[in-house]
Amino acid sequence: MQKNGRVTRTEFHKRKRKKRIIWTIIFIISLLISILCIMKIFFWNQENKNVDKITEDINNEKIVEEVQSETAENINPPEDKDDDYWNYIKMDMMSVDFNELKKKNSDTVGFIKVNGTNVNYPIVQTTDNSYYLKHAFDKSSNSAGWVFADYRNNMVNFDRNTVIYGHSRSNQTVFGSLKKVLNKSWYGNKDNHIIKLSTPTENTLWQIVSIYTIKPESYYITTKFSDSQFKEFVKTIKDRSEIEFSGTLSENDKVLTLSTCEDVAGTTRLVIHAKLIKLDKR
């Protein structure tokens, strides 16, 4: 009630109480949001620590070694003797004790190292492309996931396009450090343009030929092709590259594709394509 245009004492106290209730509700909501954020950060850090611990344990076992091979096969050598290919095939290969890795996780199908990054992980593979998005190498629940091969790929006899996935963690675990490839300090060093991949049956070297970012799509992660489709595929992914690489790419090559998120929101993918240049049967 108002008298002579003034608010009565009763009405004043009602309004004051109403404001107090509203501010109390806002405070409680803000507090709950803060608690949830703190919990999320805590669990995020714990998951990252778990990945670091697993990685450290693997490294401490020294199951990975650099090796030279007299029996390795050079794959599709170019006619151009100035092609960087001829320098890359001289690099050491990587050999891994898979018996020890398989004791830890029977899903282990390979081990990958990308020069100039933190990528130095066992590769796992299961019957879908979702399990290792939320599980670590020890199969514990973990939003950091692990590095895994597309379930459609044959990791014994590489397909025309073999696809490897991993989350892009901001602390640079899993595939988080792959963002370095977009920096000139990385791609300006030609020694970085190589991927070493070992499986229980083969040690291999892959020369990077294309890097780009793109909205999520299924094209670049296609694994099965007709001859004409693959010819168009290699042309497309080479033309997409945002960085000029010396290596050629043809329908006679086998492609290794690394895929991860380029941004935190997951709206853009960072894609790396490499071609098989050297293979040594184990």
**Separation, N- and C-terminal Cα atoms:** 91 Å
| Poorly predicted ranges | none
SSE string, helix = H, strand = E? Answer: EEHEEHEHEEEEHEEHEE
CATH architecture of the largest domain: Beta Barrel
What's the number of structural domains?
A: 2
What is the overall shape?
elongated
Supply Rg.
26 Å
Largest sheet: 9 strands, mixed
CATH superfamily of the largest domain: Sortase
**Strand share of the residues?**
25-35%
Q: Which structural class do the helices and strands define?
A: alpha+beta
Within the CATH hierarchy, at the fold level, what is the topology of the largest domain? Sortase, Chain: A
Quick one: how many beta strands?
13
CATH class of the largest domain: Mainly Beta
Mean pLDDT: 89
Number of DSSP helices? 5
Summarize this structure briefly.
The protein is α+β, with helices and mostly antiparallel strands and 282 residues long. It contains five helices and 13 strands.
Features:
282 residues, alpha+beta, Sortase, Chain: A, 2 domains, 13 strands
Characterise this structure.
The protein has 282 residues and is of the alpha+beta class. It folds into two domains: 2-43; 67-281, Sortase (Sortase, Chain: A), CATH 2.40.260.10. The protein is 29% helix and 25% strand. It is built from five helices and 13 strands. The chain has helices spanning 9-60, 85-88, 98-104, 184-187, 227-240, and strands spanning 2-3, 6-7, 64-67, 73-74, 93-96, 108-114, 120-124, 148-149, 161-165, 194-198, 202-214, 255-261, 269-281. The strands form three sheets. Strands 4, 6, 7, 8, 9, 10, 11, 12 and 13 form a nine-stranded mixed sheet that branches. The protein has a two-stranded antiparallel ribbon with strand order 1-2. Strand 1 (2-3) and strand 2 form a beta hairpin. The chain is elongated, with a radius of gyration of 26 Å. The termini are far apart. The model has no long low-confidence stretch (mean pLDDT 89).
